UniProtKB/TrEMBL annotation:
InterPro entries listed in its UniProt record: FAD-bd, FAD/NAD-bd_sf, Geranylgeranyl_Rdtase_fam, Geranylgeranyl_reductase
Assigned EC number: 1.-.-.-
Stated name of the protein: NAD(P)/FAD-dependent oxidoreductase
Keywords, alphabetical: Oxidoreductase
PANTHER family assigned to the protein according to its UniProt record, in alphabetical order: CONDITIONED MEDIUM FACTOR RECEPTOR 1, GERANYLGERANYL DIPHOSPHATE REDUCTASE
Organism domain of life: Bacteria
Pfam (any one): FAD_binding_3
GO molecular function annotations of the record: oxidoreductase activity
Protein's UniProt keywords contain Oxidoreductase: yes
Domain FAD-binding residue range list: 6-308
Length: 382
């Protein structure tokens, strides 16, 4: 007999954990399915902004102190630098420090909270397909589960999304960035990295990063695939300019990053998409951790309300997304094209002038204290 749950959450990472914990704490039966066994490695810079640190506390009771205790928090810095290959365009401090984390440890810890809240978590279970109308979820090994609702939190390659006929996958792919990242011992990097550093001007519609991560440094690039860019070659040049031994290329990994591909209507029948599955990543800096947690929480809230009242969760989920998330993504998208064009017209220095002009508000915008929409004070409502 097929087992039935109030909700099946496909994907047990950030968006999935946020959705599952929200539902389980309201006493709903939740099944979380993830193809990986945790802790598993996840390609990510692990940088948390102010709004993310707040939301982790609200949702999971995790604070910088508890995250440090559990080996999640690897570095904290209120400084930043934006550079080209030849000069520093801007550097300074921001009103709240950036928190650099280990994603494998963070995701594992959140799943621990999901279990404690009472959800059923099954690791190593790959979803092969689903039917948003009947709520049936079919696993690769042939097992079938049924949920009154399905939440697709299964990342950029979402299998749940494939069952949404109205999603234009070609359009989504157009605004999905390629990324490459390596993690190397801090001692192997030619300088002491004591702040997140962004490198601009060498990749069209994208950038590079060097992030401190405790005794390691994360080096990565991302960019939209426009023209005939050869990303692996570009990454080799990047390492060369940074003075990093090319031997580290053997550990380079890539993963798609939604980069302006966010959906306006991530609902089909009884299924909702959250996190990378819905393209919810801020399209200037590629911040996805907060948006995965927040959309997961919203999807969970909308489904919990629907289960309570016997209504449809779609309108409530869309209302929450359109009220807080989509204005940010639209604002950030406009700003990125403005900055990329300004750099083309006036040179790389344009971004430095922009950041220096409004250093305080710019930092507050990145952290989420101000909105990407005209730098208005932002109230996230959580
Ligand atoms: C190189 C890189 C660097 C980044 N750096 C940052 C950063 O510094 N700060 C920031 O805020 N964001 C960053 N991001 C973005 C951030 O990592 C993502 O936006 C975030 O992980 C999205 O979370 P998610 O829960 O939606 O999806 P994911 O974290 O991708 O999780 C999806 C989960 O679904 C599971 N899954 C997938 N398919 C199936 C299936 N068929 N069946 C069952 N389970 C499945 C996977 O195993 C996985 O656990 C970065 C991204 C990349 C690629």
């Amino acid at each position: 007999m097929t087992k039935t749950f109030d909700t099946i959450v496909c994907g047990g990472s950030l968006a999935g954990s946020a959705a599952a914990v929200t539902l389980a704490r309201q006493g709903r039966s939740v099944l979380v399915l993830d193809k990986a066994e945790f802790p598993r490695s996840k390609l990510c810079g692990g940088l948390l902004t102010w709004k993310t640190v707040r939301l982790l506390d609200v949702l999971f009771g995790e604070t910088p102190e508890t995250m440090r205790e559990h080996g999640i928090l690897r570095y904290v810095s209120d400084r930043y630098a934006i550079r080209t290959f030849t000069s520093t365009l801007a550097e300074g401090t921001v009103s709240y420090p950036f928190h650099l984390t280990d994603r494998a440890e963070l995701d594992n810890r959140l799943l621990y909270h999901v279990r404690r809240a009472g959800a059923h978590v099954r690791e190593g279970e790959e979803v092969a397909g689903c039917d948003p109308k009947s709520g049936e979820v079919i696993l690769k090994d042939g097992q079938v589960f049924r949920g009154k609702y399905i939440i697709g939190a299964d990342g950029a390659h979402s299998t749940v999304r494939a069952a949404f006929p109205e999603v234009n996958l070609r359009a989504m792919r157009r605004f999905t960035a390629a990324t490459i990242e390596v993690r190397i011992p801090a001692n192997d990097f030619p300088e002491t990295v004591d702040r997140p550093i962004l490198y601009v001007g060498f990749v069209d519609a994208g950038y590079g990063w060097v992030f401190p991560n405790g005794d390691h440094v994360l080096i990565g690039i991302c960019g939209l695939r426009r023209g005939d860019i050869h990303f692996a070659k570009l990454f080799r040049t990047y390492l060369d300019v940074l003075g990093v031994d090319p031997a580290v290329l053997c550990c380079q990994r890539g993963h798609p990053l939604p980069y302006g591909s966010y959906l306006h209507d991530p609902v089909h029948a009884n299924a909702l998409l959250a996190g990378d599955a819905g393209g919810y990543v801020e399209p200037l800096f590629g911040e996805g951790i907060f948006y995965a947690l927040c959309t997961g929480m919203y999807a969970g809230r909308a489904v919990a309300e629907a289960l309570e009242t016997g209504t449809d969760p779609g309108p409530e989920y869309l209302r929450l997304l359109h009220r807080t998330i989509l204005p940010e993504l639209r604002g950030s998208n406009s700003l990125r094209w403005f900055l990329f064009r300004a750099m083309k017209l006036f040179g790389d220095g344009a971004i430095g002038r922009f950041v220096r002009l409004g250093a305080g508000p710019f930092g507050d915008m990145v952290h989420g204290k101000r909105s990407y929409h005209w730098l208005k004070k932002k109230d996230w409502g959580f």
